[in-house]
Design brief:
Largest sheet: 8 strands, parallel
Strand content: 5-15%
Number of domains: 1
Structural class: alpha/beta
Low-confidence stretches: 1-29
Shape: globular
Bound molecules: manganese (II) ion
Strand order of the largest sheet: 2-1-3-8-7-4-5-6
Distance between the termini: 37 Å
Number of helices: 11
Radius of gyration: 20 Å
CATH superfamily: Ureohydrolase domain
Oligomer: single chain
Mean pLDDT: 91
CATH class: Alpha Beta
Order of helices and strands: HEHHEHEHEHEHEHHEHEH
CATH architecture: 3-Layer(aba) Sandwich
CATH topology: Arginase, Chain A
């Protein structure tokens, strides 16, 4: 047996070393990108306050450094502010006017950043996706490529201003980006994302009307039970293959509550039974391997509820994984 090992070990070592050196060289030249950090201290998508501190918490946890250490050219353009006095408020919707103002401003910021960089929107609550996806969809239409959306969330956020009981508009961005009725106060979503182009991962808290509406669509929704039973790789890989085959742009929206509250306590809408650290990193690593992600939301981080910055740190680490941080380089043949 000893002879066997001695005989083969140098061969294995030399093959794998040269393979990984080649791979590393290729990665360094191919994966450097221009990244724009855009702060969106938006806190009006729900009543519980604190998300306005999210961008600065992500900065304090070292987001810019984590990405520049990977070789990316990172530019933090600071925080944007909402357009004001856009529409009248309307009960029972909470802060409708302010939310529309953020939507307009964020759509413009997304449209400005997309042609030259991968924008990372530092939220801010999930209502910011009303604006980011609007802007990204406008850009996708301009460059004539289909837009795909990956929603990593405990919730579907498929409400509309007409169906929400709470009046909290952070529960409506997927309703908006799919072109559901009821968003008259908002800018027209000219290029609604087809249901087929949307995948939701991590669901475990879905209102009955949302579930009924969702089940009438072709949106791919994967709840935590499905992840428990079959793992997270298969549904994600299937979705990424679709994006690749269509030469699509891919917007990823990462809600803190996608993660289990035991590892990510800094969110107002904790739901037990979320993704583990490894499941979340695996999603991000597969996104990087695919090379398909073109924009990213980091949302619902409420630093007021955090424990010594651990949730902010995890969100930074997950973003780094999505942009190429690995323990070891390894083959990613499925997307080559
Ligand atoms: Mn959400």
């Amino acid at each position: 047996m000893t002879a066997h090992i001695v005989h083969y070990a140098p061969f294995i070592l030399s093959v794998s070393t040269s393979y990984f050196l080649d791979r590393a060289k290729k990665d360094i030249s191919m994966s450097k990108q221009s990244v724009t950090l855009i702060g969106a201290p938006m806190d009006c998508g729900k009543r519980r306050q604190g998300c306005l501190m999210g961008p600065d918490s992500l900065r304090t946890a070292g987001l810019e450094r984590a990405l520049s250490d990977l070789g990316h050219a990172v530019h933090d353009q600071g925080n944007i502010t909402p357009d004001i006095n856009t529409v009248a408020d309307r009960a029972p919707l909470f802060a409708l006017s302010e939310t529309v103002g953020w939507t307009t401003a964020l759509a413009a910021a997304a449209q400005n950043a997309m042609p030259h960089s991968l924008p990372v929107f530092m939220g801010g609550d999930h209502a910011l996706s009303l604006g980011t996806v609007l802007g990204v969809a406008r850009h996708a239409a301009q460059v004539q490529r289909p837009l795909f959306v990956l929603w990593l969330d405990a919730h579907t956020d498929f409400h509309t201003p007409d169906t929400t009981d709470s009046g909290n508009l952070h529960g409506t961005p997927v309703g908006y980006l799919t072109g559901r009725a009821g968003f008259d106060a908002f800018p027209v979503f000219e290029h609604a994302v087809p249901h087929d182009n949307i995948a939701m991962l991590g669901l475990r808290s879905v209102d009955a009307p949302e579930r009924a509406a969702l089940q009438d669509t072709d949106i791919s929704y994967v709840d935590m039970r499905a992840i428990d039973e079959h793992g997270i790789v298969a549904p994600l890989t299937a979705f990424l293959e679709k994006v690749k085959a269509a030469n699509g742009l891919l917007h990823v929206s990462l809600d803190v509550d996608f993660l289990d509250p035991s590892i990510a306590p800094a969110v107002g809408t904790t739901v037990p039974g979320g993704a583990t650290v490894r499941e979340a990193h695996l999603v991000m690593e597969l996104l990087h391997d695919s090379g398909l992600m073109t924009s990213l939301d980091l949302v619902e981080l409420n630093p007021f509820l955090d424990e010594r910055g651990r949730t902010a740190q995890l969100m930074v680490d997950l973003t780094a994984s999505a942009l190429g941080r690995t323990v070891f380089d390894r083959p990613t043949l499925s997307f080559q």
